[in-house]
Amino acid sequence: MDISPYLLTIVTSWVVAQGAKYLIIAIKSRNFSGFRQLYLSGNMPSAHSATVMSMATVVGLINGFDSALFGIAIMVAGVVMYDAIMVRRSVGEQGLAIQELIKAAKNNERVVIPRAAKGHTPLEVVVGAILGVLIGLVVFIATK
Q1: How many domains are contained in the chain?
Q2: What is the pLDDT, as a whole number, of residue 111?
Q3: Which residue range forms the structural domain that includes residue 116?
Q4: Nearest to 16 by CA among 143, 137, 144, 141
Q5: Cis geometry, peptide bond prior to residue 5 (ω within 30 degrees of 0)
Q6: d(C-alpha 50, C-alpha 135), whole Å
């Protein structure tokens, strides 16, 4: 049974990027109990960027870099990476500001502080994209 390089690159890039994110945070904090980093958004590297770029790489290598499918894959990758930097990052910063406002209000009522989802810095997205291209190349070679 052959493994689909398309599906394999998605799973591999996501697992590698999220695992790297966990390791980077664990080493920086010297605390290896933060398993939430295995599924939370934000931080280095961007798993979204790694996933879409690994898929675009595999699509380009298999279907050709002049194919319509590669064009679509690159367009989707661009939208996802733009969104990670511009939209999700802004929303995360706004979420942190809302949390601070709620805390500053010092209301006696029990108020649930909403979670602020983090977006990505441009560096986190670039590193995720490079990681994705490398994983796409490895998956392509391994499944040839």
Answers
A1: 1
A2: 75
A3: 5-143
A4: 137
A5: no
A6: 8
